[in-house]
Amino acid sequence: MSLLTRTESWHRLTEHHARVANLRMRDQFAADGERGQRYSVEAAGLYLDYSKHRITDETLQLLAGLARERDLASWIARMFAGHPINNSEQRAVLHVALRAASPPTEVGEALGRMRAFARAIRNGTLTGASGERISDVVNLGIGGSDLGPRMAVRALRRFCPDLPRVHFVANVDPEDLNATLADLRPESTLFIIASKTFTTAETLMNAQRARTWLGTRIAETHLGRHYAAISTNLAAAGSFGIAEDRIFPMWDWVGGRFSLWSAVGLALMIAIGPEAFDELLAGARSMDEHFRTAPVESNMPALLGLLGVWYTDFYGARTHAVLPYAQDLLLFPDHLQQLEMESNGKRVDRDGEAVDYLTAPVLWGSVGTNGQHAFHQLLHQGTQLVPADFIIVRACAEHGDVEAHRMLLANALAQSAALMMGHDDMAQPYRHYPGNQPSSTIVLPRIDPYSLGALVALYEHKVYVQGIMWGVNSFDQWGVELGKGIARSLLPVLAGQAPVTELDGSTQTLIGRLRIAAENG
Ligand code: F6P
């Protein structure tokens, strides 16, 4: 049996769960008029209401006890101190250093170069080869080199001027790049090749295709004016033909999914400007400080992480919903999917032992109120326990419609209340709502760079807390390698240049059909 399930706290939580599993939140609210206020915490301008959870004071004490027994405080200190906590790769994990008040010299230098580059693109002093202003910036990257900046550009679109426009292309499906380039002109387009490793097949393929497109209008010798790159692999970026002063560094101590704050944020910085980017860093820094110093009982990321463990491992919840009631946070669940599932979707602990408990649930979600007319039915009357995070924004956007914003907030509050309260109708079972579905509500004062920085950092730290509880390494992703290798080996097979015999029967048959399809055009 693994260490986690042998801890004293685990046993006590198991016993406690048996006693409280059937408690009803609505009764707890009725018995405790202070519950809504007592179970809340503020940090970095964000407010978390965690009162609509299937917990008592004792649950919280026991979860805090688990955190202590798992040595959370010292793991937090080790991360901030740069210990090699990514043990399968022997790397430090220092995304927090990217937003520190006094960052390491190389980070400060990189930020300085990013600021100068972003300003020059924004004010038009850095032009394309023909002297034309750069009107469109296309970020070519995938996973962590795409999802964070893509999400943030969408969230902060109110902070973006009309020009330059910033686009994101990730998929190797040529239609992604084609659709983006359809309205663009090579003379006024700049590509940012964002790849920590500079070996990711999709990104390199898109970079190659982009080069061909540029070459239709720009002489080979001038193509460099239309590129920048972000990578740890400076040599590979150089061999692609990108000039040294246009390669922005990354470091192996920044994980892709934690890299928004690094040069991977260059497209975002170009979109919102260096000052707003600094605000994003400041919001994250404020959450870092809270995470580093607050006791576990009032530590927002720790509370979210521990509540997740409570539902996953004691109630057997297999999924977790993230429901932003803000159209501008449309892509936030996508970013969190990689952050949480690539980090903690692990089956062995740090010592390589198979775990005997559930780790990361499937994270999913989308914006309210749309989801209410799609999947909320299952949340209200389905058969599964689905903990949810409601993310709401207090202030209506500048020049926004206050009445519509009020309706949005009313819906968010109604949904979390209905999920918790339920509604009894035994005579008409199809109208019966069992309720007792747990949710957190996170309130942002407004959608701005500072609050977004704090929100993203909140979830980054939640992921780390859960990784420590589950004893897994949240910072590697070996599970993505097998498929990459098979895809490489299938390329010559699909092209008819290698035999199909080494493959399983299903793949062989499918390749047979696909070869026919390719031959028939
Ligand atoms: O394949 C997974 C992954 O390595 C992610 O962890 C990473 O964010 C993404 O691919 C892109 O990697 P890179 O930035 O090296 O191109």
Structure description:
By secondary structure, the protein is of the alpha/beta class. 46% of the residues lie in helices and 10% in strands. It is built from 20 helices and eleven strands. The protein has helices at residues 3-6, 8-20, 25-31, 35-38, 57-69, 72-81, 105-123, 147-155, 174-181, 201-215, 234-239, 266-272, 274-293, 300-314, 332-344, 376-381, 402-421, 449-470, 481-494, 505-519; strands spanning 40-43, 46-49, 136-140, 165-169, 189-194, 227-231, 247-249, 319-324, 362-364, 388-393, 439-444. A six-stranded mixed beta sheet has the order 1-2-11-10-8-9, sandwiched between helices. It has a five-stranded parallel beta sheet with strand order 4-3-5-6-7, with helices on both faces. Helix 15 (332-344) links the parallel strand 8 and strand 9 (362-364). Helix 2 (8-20) runs antiparallel to helix 5 (57-69), helix 8 runs parallel beside helix 12 and helix 15 packs parallel to helix 18. The chain is globular. 44% of the residues are buried. The protein binds 6-O-phosphono-beta-D-fructofuranose. Residues 142-145, 195-197, 200, 203, 256-257, 342, 477, 480 line the site of 6-O-phosphono-beta-D-fructofuranose. 6-O-phosphono-beta-D-fructofuranose is lined by residues 142-145, 195-197, 200, 203, 256-257, 342, 477, 480.
